[in-house]
Design goal:
Elements (H helix, E strand, L loop, with lengths): L15 E5 L2 E4 L6 E3 L2 H4 L8 H11 L12 H13 L4 E5 L2 H18 L7 E5 L8 H7 L2 H4 L9 E4 L4 H9 L3 E6 L2 E2 L5 E2 L2 H14 L2 E5 L24 E4 L10 E5 L20 H14 L2 H24 L4 E7 L2 E6 L3 H10 L2 E2 L1 E3 L3 E4 L7 H24 L1
Parallel strand pairs: 3-15, 5-6, 5-7, 7-10, 10-11
Antiparallel strand pairs: 1-2, 2-3, 4-12, 8-9, 11-12, 13-14, 14-17, 16-17
Helix pairs in contact: 2-9, 3-9, 10-12, 11-12
Length: 398
């Protein structure tokens, strides 16, 4: 039977009906799956966390949606939590990461226009980036495969390698440049973590040239690296604008564009908006998620879990040199560079009841909940080991 769904996803042949913590039960039943996809880094607290279920239930019985024609007290409450925890002074709430990125681009260009520098429109992006699937965000990332068939590339975007320091310096110094947009840790692009030195030099260059620095922390933010935001590992590298989503709602669609007062100074009533962004239901769940993720014990556990996992993964790479090449990423945004096809590896992992995600550069990503136990992490490694054995056997048989 042909599905009425638009043919845009190459879905795995699995459907899940129940989740708890890092475990998922499929429609067919049987042994549950260990989930290291976590809704693509969204379910930071695992499935059906009691605090989130309670917040959703309580708010769902009171009020879901009113639009931004009216005040939404939950927006003030969540915005205060976010701004108290980072560089930002002001917040715009949206629904998805790509919307938050679009808002960030608009904030940057409007900032310069309001100062009489309307010629500053160019956004510098980086090879390997992923900023979402709306048209502006696609052009900001510049991935040719994602843009294929959708018309000519939009003007106002350039794309560089983070390693090409000379070209980057020249583009930042160009009087047409408005902002630099970068993920402190690339997710889809291969779990590539930017270094302290690079982010420090980028911050200094942007400040010197009057160019705004935008971080896309849609995947790396909200505790994923063991700090609330990935750039906070490196004091002095704060951005002017930041996009956050995914784990902000820990499974419920919530996103935010955060900015300093100065960076957002061009945004006035009518300059941007969203029908559903910041609705009461989303705010209630996101407040509960923020309060759990921002706890010192949650972040400490995430850091310890990352160290525990990475030690085991390094040993796994050493034991399977024909299958795995290296461990990448930062915190619990982990990439495994493979010597075998990553899509085949993902399918083989499913046979071991383990769910992992793909990524650019022939990697698989591990994005476990921040709350995963050490014993469950050991189970992940055991299932990866069995997957490596299956892949090695298949290579020999071929």
């Amino acid at each position: 039977m042909t599905s009425p769904l638009m043919n845009v996803y190459a879905r795995a042949p699995l459907a899940f009906v129940k989740g708890e913590g890092p475990w998922l039960t499929s429609r067919e039943g049987g042994e549950p799956y260990l989930d290291c996809v976590a809704g693509v880094a969204s379910n930071a607290l695992g499935h059906c966390h009691p605090a989130l279920v309670a917040a959703l239930t309580e708010q769902g019985n009171m009020l879901w949606h009113v639009s931004n024609m009216f005040q939404v007290p939950g927006q003030d409450a969540l915005a205060a939590r976010l701004t108290d925890a980072c560089f930002a002074d002001t917040v715009f709430f949206a629904n998805t990461g790509t919307e938050a990125v679009e808002c960030a681009i608009k904030v940057a260009r409007r900032y310069h226009a309001a100062r009489g520098d309307a010629q500053r429109q160019t956004i510098i992006g980086f090879h390997g980036a992923f900023h979402g699937r709306t048209y502006g965000a696609l052009n900001a990332a510049g991935n040719a495969a994602h843009l294929d068939g959708f018309g000519a590339p939009m003007p106002g975007f350039v794309h560089l390698s983070p390693d090409d320091r000379a070209s980057l310096a020249a583009e930042i110094a160009d009087p047409a440049t408005a902002a630099v947009l970068i993920e402190p840790v690339q997710g889809e692009g291969g779990a590539r973590a930017m270094t302290r030195g690079f982010l420090e030099s980028l911050r200094a260059a942007c400040t010197s040239a009057g160019v705004l620095l935008i971080y896309d922390e849609v995947q790396s933010g909200m505790g994923r690296t063991g700090q609330l935001f990935a750039h906070q590992w490196f004091p002095g590298t704060d951005p002017d604008i930041m996009a956050v989503a995914k784990a902000l709602g820990s499974g419920l669609p919530v996103a935010a564009c955060l900015a300093t007062t100065e960076a957002a100074s061009g945004m006035q009533p009518g300059g941007h908006g969203s029908t559903f962004g910041g609705n009461p239901l989303a705010m209630a769940v996101a407040i509960a998620a923020f309060d759990e993720i921002a706890k010192s014990e949650t972040l400490e556990h995430a850091r310890a879990l990352s160290e525990h996992l990475r030690g085991s993964l390094d040993a796994l790479v050493a034991g399977w040199p024909g299958v795995m090449v290296e461990v990448r990423g930062k915190g619990l945004l982990i990439g495994l560079k493979l010597a075998v096809n990553n899509r085949a590896f993902i399918a083989a992992a499913r046979e071991q009841r383990l769910l992992v995600a793909g990524g650019g550069g022939n990697i698989v990503r591990l994005l476990p909940p921040l709350t995963m136990s050490f014993a469950e992490a050991d189970g992940v490694v055991a299932r990866l080991d069995a997957t490596c054995a299956a892949m090695a056997a298949a290579e020999i048989a071929a």
